[in-house]
Amino acid sequence: MEIPYTTKPRPDTGLYNAKVGIWLFLASEVMLFGALFSSYILLRVGAFVENWPHGLLNVPIGTVNTIVLIVSSITVVMAWASLKMKNFGKFKFYQAITVLCALMFLGIKSFEYRDKFTHYEVWKTDGTRMTGHIEGKPMFLTLAKVKAAGKEKIGFIPDPYHYSASKEVKHTAKEHPGEHKTVEIAVSEIKRLSAFVPAHSTYFAIYFTLTALHGLHVLGGAIVIGFLFGPGSKMWHSDPERFTNRVEVAGLFWHFVDLVWIFLFPVLYLL
Fold it and tell me: Which one of 33, 152, 262, 268 has the fewest beta carbons within 10 angstroms of its own beta carbon?
């Protein structure tokens, strides 16, 4: 039995079935991310300015990832256009670049995640707060674990421009840029200690929810595009038009993934 409207447009919609399906799917994705973005906006507007973290994400890394995804959007279009021009070799070339861009994005994001797991904020009993790294860069360390280990002091390398780092630390950063001065903080003076993980604050809970969900979409899109680059490309020899439609549908999903990041980057990294 032949499946209808795999290459020819339906008379009621003017689109072939797969394209109708992807647009309906993307509509549900818009509702999913729209709800999350709306939640973020409401929580952000309702929060006290002093309690909302600022400047704790790596903007240069986020910018590089934005460029990577924009490039991948161009290459996925070029791959589809190559099939339209009956140039299968160029399709493979551009499709390979798209997959490499997706893997590069995920690799950079995993590096960024790891840095968050070893980056800490210290709330002291005198009301001051500092961000930085603990000597040895342990992951998921908490105040309870520090006390359980029987430590009286921790070695802390503060960020000079975040929150209320001491004047001495800020002066050292200006006089000796690039140097990292370690200070010792008595455990008895620490009120709270947290890495930049979801438990740190509402901000990081939202950050990890949105970026992890987006990362799963990037991974899913990369798998589909990789399949069309590899085993799935055999259809080109038996039914080239239907294969071209499949590449177009995968490209539409990829454009949506890129568009979500273009909203995520300024909202989370810049505002």
Answer: 152
